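Worked problem 6 (solution included).
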Amino acid sequence: MRLTRRQILKSGALGLAIAAVPAWAKDAFAKATALPPDLIERNAWPEHWESTVAALGRTKNTPNDAFFVRSHFPVPSVDPAAWRLEVKGLVDNPLTLDLAALRALPQRPVRATLECAGNGRGQYDLANTSGTQWGLGAVGTAEWRGVALATLLDRAGVHAGAKHLWIETADHATLPQAPPFLRSIPLELARERGTIALDMNGRPLPALHGGPARALVPGWYGMAWAKWITRIRVETAPSDNHFMVKGYRYVAPGGDPLASSPVETMRVKSLITSPLDGSLVTGKAIEVKGWAWTGFGSGRVMAVEISSDGGGTWQNCGLEVDAAPFAWCAFTARVAVTRTGPLTLIARASDTRGPQPLAAAPNTGGYGNNSAHRVAVHVAG
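Solution. The predicted structure is:
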């Protein structure tokens, strides 16, 4: 596991030893353990690292070293040579596959957008919300590659009456009383879209992103994309794990988690990547660029609009026509400038359920904030 500089400096005697070394050695140490430049540290350990908006705007697929990182527990130490994936439960032929056997099965590419359910939590209009206070960059898109869950399920032979897949993982809490992380997804969804990813952007899946294998559930928020998978259980009912029953629920202030809707499908959302917030712009028009995505319907955004007058009027953006389903699509617009001074641009995307709200209704967990994105710029004369 890669330790952050902060963790190492906090480790008592080792920190004192580091303090005694020459300045040149400290500089070399700092460079070797520094956070990648395109990531913002929201939590040191476990690593909660957010992509900068500038980094997200540079490429269609987010590079691995600029891709946000979110873990419930510390990154486990997994030996790829000893790692095994089991498929058990309500199946005729239980499977135990090593990495070589899994790679020998038919592989498929899946370009999909992964978004943390808490992305935008820090921007909700609440006194406080539980969890990491993410800005806008807990999202990214990659070209994944792996084995379709349907392939594994067909080989295992699923019993009639089975309805859900329970996904068990190798990470665990440092305190024994803490519940393990476990997610389950509907069997139908797993067959339709699910993949066991082994590669990310043409390279073996990095440990920080779940290597050697993680689940892909395009269209659902990231908590369903379980990392470091060790076992898939085929069951009749959804998991009763804490992270299913009480966690990841849209709980209104004062509401009951058990009676609240689960956090599952990604809400329609847009992100302006150019110009950046706080930019100085010149000329008679502003070139606006960004990404939009959704998990509903066919997984494709129907429209993106831009407003420069506080939402009074809107103009349609040009949309990428060949975007993959459940992957973000590019949008562009040329916004006329009629005055100098401060100006706010607002982007809103629409899917089959309609446009994203100007301000999403808050919930105590801070989940699913798909408020329309606002970027403040200054127009120079």
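Discussion: Residues 1-19, 24-33 have pLDDT under 50 and may be disordered.
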